[in-house]
Fold this sequence. Notes:
- By secondary structure, this protein is of the alpha/beta class.
- The chain has 2 domains: about 15-90 and about 170-260, P-loop containing nucleotide triphosphate hydrolases (Rossmann fold), CATH 3.40.50; about 100-165, no CATH class.
- It has 8 helices and 10 strands.
- It has helices at about 60-65, 105-115, 120-135, 150-165, 180-200, 210-215, 245-250, 250-260, and strands spanning about 20-30, 35-45, 50, 75-80, 85, 90-95, 170-175, 200-205, 220, 230-235.
- The chain has a 6-stranded mixed β-sheet, sandwiched between helices. It has a 4-stranded antiparallel β-sheet with strand order 2-1-4-5, with helices on one face.
- Strand 9 (about 220) and strand 10 (about 230-235) form a beta hairpin.
- Helix 2 crosses helix 3 (about 120-135) and helix 2 (about 105-115) runs parallel beside helix 4 (about 150-165).
- The protein is globular, with a radius of gyration of 19 Å.
- The protein binds adenosine-5'-triphosphate and magnesium ion.
- Adenosine-5'-triphosphate (ATP) binds near residues 29, 31, 55, 59 and 60.
Amino acid sequence: MTPGSPGAEEQPVADRASAISTKNASKTFEGGTVALEKVSFEVARSQFVSILGPSGCGKSTLLRMVGGLIPADAGGEVRVLGQLQRSPSSDVGIVFQTHNMLPWITVEANIRLAAEMRGLSTSEIAERTRRILDVLKLTPYRSLFPHQLSGGMRQRAAFGQILILRPQILLLDEPFGALDALTRDQLNVELLRLWEEGKQTVILITHSIPEAVFLSDRILVMSDRPGRIIADIAIDFPRPRDPQHTRAFPEFTEHVLTLNHMMGVH
Length: 266
Ligand SMILES: Nc1ncnc2c1ncn2[C@@H]1O[C@H](COP(=O)(O)OP(=O)(O)OP(=O)(O)O)[C@@H](O)[C@H]1O
Ligand SMILES: [Mg+2]
């Protein structure tokens, strides 16, 4: 510990190279379900990491632990930006599969609300809202109510609610799960553009192997429950990526085949 450091549990600033780190993070729920077993990994700042794994293996549980929504069992730890993660923090934005929009206010008002709750100034909120609507191509639909949106628009709006807070870390739990393949591909490209601009640290949970290979710097593969990390695969296609070029690399198909095999898809 360096003199004057904030406490025995905090790391000095110089050691905070990793944005996220878990050490022996396990989770047994009441009733005895062992969801995760000794999960340890580090995610460097600005890295885009995807997590693949069978249904029920503990992916959402892991994400909720990283987001500070549930604690790890005693003996394990989760750190975000060097700090032990005990409760949700403004550094971390989480996008769940089901959106959190209020049905009785417009898309624009829903996006703005997140910033209002954070207490930003009126002019800052107006500028951020304008920019988010523009980047997410929602400006023409800003006065619609959530039920009047298509699935893809609703998903973009849910991203907007998080992005307006400019979190350093984005945790995405199957955000494209309910969308058709074409909309999903389009949103993948938009997500990449946003990420290339902001270089947030991202953990994306997905069931789509090609999506994970296209987007990620790295893919973590989890075992059946209790979830453990059984593979950590670097994906080093050049960036910026675009679907046509990136998917044309022979290594793209090789990664997809390897992961298919690992996940039992034949
Ligand atoms: N709050 C809870 N209480 C009890 N058991 C839970 C709770 N949350 C999750 N579980 C159990 O923990 C296991 C892992 O669930 P989790 O939601 O993390 O899986 P997942 O990998 O995200 O699955 P999917 O791909 O289907 O979303 C499951 O067996 C689930 O039933
Ligand atoms: Mg899940």
